[in-house]
Amino acid sequence: MVSGDSRMVFALDTGTRSIIGIVAEVTPDALHIRAAAREEHRGRAMLDGQIHDVNQVAKLVVKVKKQLEEQLGQSLRKVAVAAAGRVLKTVKGEAERDFPPWQEISEEEVRSLELEAVRAAERSLAENEKTEERFYCVGYSITEYRLNGEKIGNPVGQRGNSVGVRLIATFLPQVVVDSLIAVLERAGLEMEMMTLEPIAAIEAVIPPTMRHLNLALVDIGAGTSDIAVTSQGSVSAYAMVPLAGDEVTEKLCELYLLDFFVGEQVKRQLTKKKSVNFRDVLGIQHKVSSKEVVASLKETVNEIAREIGKTILELNQTPPQAVICIGGGSLTPGLIEELASVLGLSRERVAVRDTSAVRGIEGLSAEFSGPDGVTPLGIALMAAHPQGLGLSQVRVNDRIVRLFRGARATVADALLAAGIGFSELYGRPGLSLTVEVNGKVEIIKGSLGEPAKITLNGEPATLDTPLPPKATICVEEAKPGKDASAVVKDVLPTDLPSLRITFNGEPRELSPLIFMNGELVTPETTLVDRARVYWFPVSTVKDVLLALGYSEEKLQPEILRVTLNGEQKEVAFLPFAVYRNNRPVELSEEVKEGDQIELRFSEQRPRISDLLARENVQLPRAEVKVYVNGKPVTLTGKGYRVFKNEKEATLEEELDDGDVVEVRSDSDFKPIFADIFNHISFDRDPPNPAARLVTLLNGQEAKFTTPLRDGDKIRIFWKHENLLQNITPDERHHR
Q1: Around Cβ 18, how many Cβ atoms within 10 Å?
Q2: Domain 208-355, CATH 3.40.50.720 — does that match?
Q3: φ and ψ at 696, to 5 degrees?
Q4: Using an 8 Å Cβ cutoff, are 207 and 324 in contact?
Q5: Are 396 and 415 within 8 A, CB to CB?
Q6: Is 486 in contact with 433 (CB distance < 8 Å)?
Q7: Taken in order 363, 364, 366, 371, is the CA torsion positive or negative?
Q8: Residue 503, beta-bridge partner list
Q9: Torsion of CA 295, 300, 303, 307, to 10 degrees
Q10: Mean pLDDT throughout 457-473?
Q11: Rg of the Cα trace of the chain?
Q12: pLDDT-derived band of residue 391, with 50, 70 and 90 as boundaries?
């Protein structure tokens, strides 16, 4: 009978060689074994811990179940099981999300980020396995959180620009789980809890109180050897070696031509009898000493020991303090001694433990007390104090989802199994506007997105809401936030300075100039993200014109491109003039409160003379040297000709874009007598009415229009009609 303070658990260990079932009563003080049964496979329905023939394994489970029910006098429905450690997959995953820096990070958001990292691990697993096979996530552990790229213990309640999480997720292939479920369903059983064989073994022989020691647990079965390492209070590593008892059996069959199951029986007798009797496949009867058989298997046994030892050293880096071996394969002759040698440990530091090492167990018969009985006891212990994973079926958005749920299963676990990630649970926050105003960064926030509404069985729920059996979950679509929007004046000071002036006779009050990304804008201009806004008060003539609406382009000089004497030239000119307080000024001139500014436009364009002056062109001059009244005088004149577009032109002609200007030297300078008076000092008023002006050129009387030549001798004087003393004999004769 089961007392009111206890309950029953049914543990089933589906091994490669046999299936063991244990039913125990759980009391506060101990686990009381009420029934136990074992059945061996008649064929190789399981290999390396994996079910290969569902129907054959199911038939054997039914046999074990019936035996247990007969012993108990009651039917069994729910069962705890373990999957082989060789199928376990551990994958790293990470996820990161940007957050508005002013927003406090909630526990819900961190939980959602963890789910996204698990999904990333699941995708990585699928890619690395190069298969479309689905995996069940049976748990995950956080390795680190990051806030703004730096490690942090817990980001909940913090603020930052980004939050990241890294974790290790544990997966089981769907085919492994489904085959185990199929076996149980055919046997009329329902999976109540699931764990992994190495975890169950650890629970049995290395309880938490022993895990501060650096120990290695090796479960040597028929198909595989599962390894777990403990240190510093926890299980630090798991691994699997694909070598175990079957390798010894197969070697025995090869040496002596035995059927596999005959070889298995011979192997088990080696430690019990001095000699073994068997019949080979040819029908020949043999009797061989156990010592001889063991010696023939030494190489195979040593290989198993070397692989186990090598794996332990890879996991632990150094030899552990001790090694505990369980499982039927640990009884293989010579295996423990060789493993101790490989690890460099003394023989007493590598031990085989049976069920006597499991604490808190009562009523277990001697038939199940060997090393192979440890794992089923571990499964029972985990079922007694739920630490494993129960298979549950829930409905998410009208879709049936199967998941493993532990004692603390939540809505988040169901959503993860349904493939719903962070982006579907939290609406994208509206994008912020980040602008720089006179060198200072300003941020205009977008609105927050609305998270998806979650209901559990019709009631509002969160990701951390506990998950009841057969739950129905509905997840509505999350709503994104609105992006930030603003105009330029929203980021400017409210007390901007202004300048009062008079422009073209009208009073004006000018606000500061505002530029966004180098373009002049108004206060009503829409801001763009990452804009650089710069404003400054009006202080120069150019600022005044810009503030009055004259474009930057209009205030730029016009450029004429012309050709001067075969070379390309540019002539810049302003088509206007600016006056400040009635004085012409440059655009860079400062202005003050109350100034009068006038803008005058002009249609006059640059002239040829302006071009020649800008280019410092020295115009050629012609010279004629003469002597006047015995003194040398040099007459100068134009020694060039100017052509525009191959037509002769004056220096005052205006230029147009594309003009071709040429200055040619021309020495045909022809001064006349009258030009002399521009170069000498001579009293042009007659001294008396009777005086007459005498103009002589080379001794001959000359007119004012008479041409002059280089070297001419000129005399100019006033003459009284009755006076000849100033005339030379030749001149007198001429008169």
Answers
A1: 18
A2: no
A3: -115, 135
A4: no
A5: yes
A6: yes
A7: negative
A8: 506, 597
A9: -130
A10: 86
A11: 55
A12: low
Q: Distance (Å, rounded) from C-alpha 45 to C-alpha 385?
A: 31
Do the Cβ atoms of 172 and 181 come closer than 8 Å? Answer: no
In angstroms, the CA 292 to CA 726 distance is 166
In the chain, helix, strand, coil percent, each to 5?
Answer: 25, 35, 35
**Which tokens hold the place of 240?**
């699997």
Residue 344 sits at φ, ψ, to 5 deg, of: 75, 30
Confidence of residue 314 (pLDDT cuts 50, 70, 90): very high
The token duo for 433 is 């506007």
The Cα-based distances of 208 to 195, 270, 362, 632 in angstroms read: 17, 36, 20, 128
Which pairing describes strands 472-475 and 361-362: parallel, antiparallel, or unpaired? Answer: unpaired
Alpha helices in 562-669 (DSSP H): 608-614
At position 404, the amino acid (one-letter code) is F
| Torsion of the alpha carbons at 270, 276, 277 and 282, rounded to the nearest 10 | 60
Angstrom distance (rounded) from CA 175 to CA 14? 16
Assign 24 to helix, strand or coil: strand
pLDDT at 731 over 60: no
pLDDT tens string 649-665: 888 888 889 999 998 88
**CA 109 → CA 116, 461, 517, distances in Å?**
11, 14, 37
| Secondary structure, 3-state, 629-680 | CCEEEEEEEECEEEEECCEEECCCCECCCCCEEEEEECCCCCCEHHHHHHCC
Q: What is the mean pLDDT of residues 209-231?
A: 88
Burial of 572 (0-12, 13-18, 19+ CB in 10 A): exposed
Tokens encoding 201: 């073994």
Q: What is the 3-state secondary structure (H, E, C) of 672-707?
A: EHHHHHHCCCCCCCCCCCCEEEEEEECCEECCCCCE
Q: CA-to-CA distance for 24 and 378, rounded, in angstroms?
A: 12
Range(s) of the chain covered by CATH 3.30.420.40: 208-355
The rounded distance, in Å, linking the Cα atoms of 336 and 355 is 18
Angle at alpha carbon of residue 238, lines to 232 and 239, rounded to 5°: 145
pTM, two decimal places = 0.55
Angle (deg, nearest 10), helices 260-269 and 245-256 = 110
Residues 356, 93: Cα–Cα separation, whole Å: 40
Q: What is the largest CA-CA distance in the chain?
A: 183
Cα 238 from Cα 68, distance rounded (Å): 33
Helix 174-186 and helix 54-72: axis angle, to 10°? 50
